Amino acid sequence: MSSQISKLLEEQNQILLKAAQQVSFHKGQVIFYEGHLPYGVYWVKNGQVCFSHQGSCDEKHDLKPPDSVREQWLGLHEYLESSSHCCTCVAETDCDVLFVNRTLLHEVLQGNPEINHFETLKH
Fold first, then answer.
1. What is the pLDDT of residues 78-95, one digit of tens each?
2. Angle between helices 102-109 and 10-19 (to 10 degrees)
3. Torsion angles phi and psi, residue 52, rounded to 5
4. Whole-angstrom distance, CA of residue 63 vs CA of residue 59
5. Backbone phi, then psi, for 36, in 5-degree steps?
6. What is the CATH number of the domain that holds 106?
7. Cβ-proximal residues to 32 (8 Å cutoff; 6+ apart), any chain
8. Count of structural domains within the chain
9. Dihedral pair phi/psi, residue 81, rounded to 5°
10. Which of 41, 42, 63, 109 is close enough to 73 for a disulfide, judged by CB 3.0 to 4.6 Å?
11. If you average pLDDT over residues 10-25, what whole number do you get?
12. Residue pair 22/97 in contact by the 8 Å Cβ criterion
């Protein structure tokens, strides 16, 4: 699953964006930690984030430059794979992030046949 965001139907994406809770992070605050299972997914609305890792990230988990994470869901790959975050995400500047918890995410994604097919294959 090279591009999970493309697997979200536009309608689903809009539902998630409207239902998301806005959370403000100050410079230096951790958004999510490497090694933790995702509590949901994150959308950087404004501001800059940076990534760091202690372990090794494989090809699926390329550490992206901070300005390339806009308009995509961070943590979606880990959620779909039921895996932990391979890096820590930190607010590099004050930023506003939209957060969707995994319960709502699961409810919205149930209607996506591509993701449901992926879920069936991984079990």
1. 988 899 998 999 999 999
2. 160
3. -145, 160
4. 9
5. -90, 145
6. 2.60.120.10
7. 38, 39, 42, 74, 75, 85, 88, 89
8. 1
9. -90, -5
10. 41
11. 91
12. yes
Global confidence as pTM = 0.76
Are the C-beta atoms of residues 102 and 39 closer than 8 Å to each other? Answer: yes
- The encoded tokens of residue 111 equal 């209607």
As to burial, measured by CB atoms within 10 angstroms (0-12 exposed, 13-18 middle, 19+ buried), residue 25 is buried
- Take residue 48 and report the two structure tokens written for it: 């800059």
**Domain containing residue 10:** 4-122
- Phi, psi of 50, deg, nearest 5: -135, 160
Give the amino acid at 5. Answer: I
Q: Which residue blocks in the chain are alpha helix, DSSP H?
A: 4-7, 10-19, 76-81, 102-109, 113-122
* pLDDT score at 109: 83
**Token pair recorded at residue 110:** 């149930």
